[in-house]
Write a structure and sequence with these properties.
CATH class of the largest domain: Alpha Beta
CATH architecture of the largest domain: 3-Layer(aba) Sandwich
CATH superfamily of the largest domain: Stage V sporulation protein AD
CATH topology of the largest domain: Peroxisomal Thiolase, Chain A, domain 1
Number of domains: 2
Strand order of the largest sheet: 1-2-10-15-14-11-12
Distance between the termini: 22 Å
Number of helices: 10
Radius of gyration: 18 Å
Number of strands: 15
Length: 339
């Protein structure tokens, strides 16, 4: 009997896992944004001494995982599982990282939803008694993502105003059966939602329906309201997706206007840095969560936060063939004191 399941999609943990260490590494553009002081490492060069953008991304993820483990005062030998993924074909950044680190590995493809997807799975593993410590991680790189999903930078292609800037960075979280919080107390895994958006430059519009669906189900399952949270943050919807979510949730009876924002809006100054609709990419929610949100929760600025990473589950081939973009959103509740 699924005694930890409440409602249709939500899990309430009986032994909430604690976040005991995090890390965030970002590129130069991200480091020039409003959240610079929250990141552990800001690169001066987005190749980080590597021969390709892809190798640089793998290095970022590897170093983020090592740093998170160090910040948790643990060693690699203390970690039972690594759960990670990224945007590149066959999640190569994560797989090459796992090859180097040597921790038993679950590879995920959740696109930009990967950070909270990995935390959902990691939390279930720990609450279920299958591990004491796991590390959850993800990465993305503007230049490697552009090369795979859009156009090589050398083309100088004009970006649409609805487009978002893939965050160059990597984030990692160590979850433990022991610790002083913040704790993951609830998770609401999402369902695929696809409203027929075929424009790969409008990720916010494509992912917003999934975010709305997950939010509605979370509130229905838990009985919470938006006002029960100090902060509600989505991962990668940017300016366009956030506005859709606020408008549609208001029609459903939920006012998010006071405490809801998006990682893609927080990480860049969209005007000064010319990122059009904001940030996106696996690292977008990963570095904001493991940098800004985690550190503000440790300070007591926020005591209960709903983090919901959103993902566009398309591929370059599906886009070229005119297929629509499926969206997904996974939500986690973080609390300084578990309910």
């Amino acid at each position: 009997m699924a005694v930890k399941r409440i409602g249709k999609q939500t899990i309430k943990f009986h032994n909430p896992p604690s976040i005991i260490g995090t890390s965030s590494i970002v590129g130069p553009k991200e480091g020039d944004g409003p959240l610079r002081g929250y990141f552990d490492i800001v690169l001066e060069d987005d190749t980080w001494g590597q021969k390709s953008f892809e190798k640089a991304e793998a290095k970022m993820q590897e170093e983020a995982i090592k740093l998170a483990i160090k910040n948790a005062n643990l060693s690699v030998d203390n970690i039972q599982f690594l759960i990670s993924g990224d945007l590149l074909n066959q999640i190569i950044s994560s797989s090459y990282t796992a090859r180097q680190i040597g921790i038993p590995y679950f590879g995920l493809y959740g696109a930009c939803s990967t950070m909270t997807e990995s935390l959902c799975i990691g939390a279930m593993i720990i609450d279920g008694g299958f591990a004491d410590n796991v590390v959850c991680a993800t990465s993305s790189h503007f230049s490697s993502a552009e090369r795979q999903f859009r156009f090589p930078l050398e083309y100088g292609a004009q970006r649409k105003f609805s487009s978002q800037w893939t965050v160059t960075g990597a984030g990692a979280t160590v979850l433990s059966a022991n610790g002083n919080g913040p704790y993951i107390t609830y998770i609401t895994p999402g369902r695929i939602k696809d409203y027929g958006v075929t424009d790969a430059s409008n990720m916010g519009g494509a992912m917003a329906p999934a975010a709305i669906d997950t939010l509605l189900q979370h509130f229905e399952d838990t009985g919470f309201t938006p006002q029960d949270y100090d902060l509600i943050v989505s991962g990668d919807l940017g300016l366009i997706g956030r506005r859709i979510v606020i408008d549609m949730m208001k029609k459903k009876g939920y006012d998010l206007s006071e405490n809801y924002t998006d990682c893609g809006i927080k990480i860049f100054d969209v005007v000064e840095q010319d990122t059009h609709a904001g940030g996106s990419g696996c690292a977008c929610s990963a570095v904001v969560l493991n940098g800004y949100i985690y550190k503000e929760m440790k300070k007591g600025t926020f005591n209960r936060v709903l983090v919901m990473s959103t993902g566009a589950l398309h591929s370059p081939i599906s886009t070229l063939q005119g297929e629509s973009v499926p969206g997904i959103a996974h939500a986690i509740t973080l609390e300084n004191l578990p309910r």
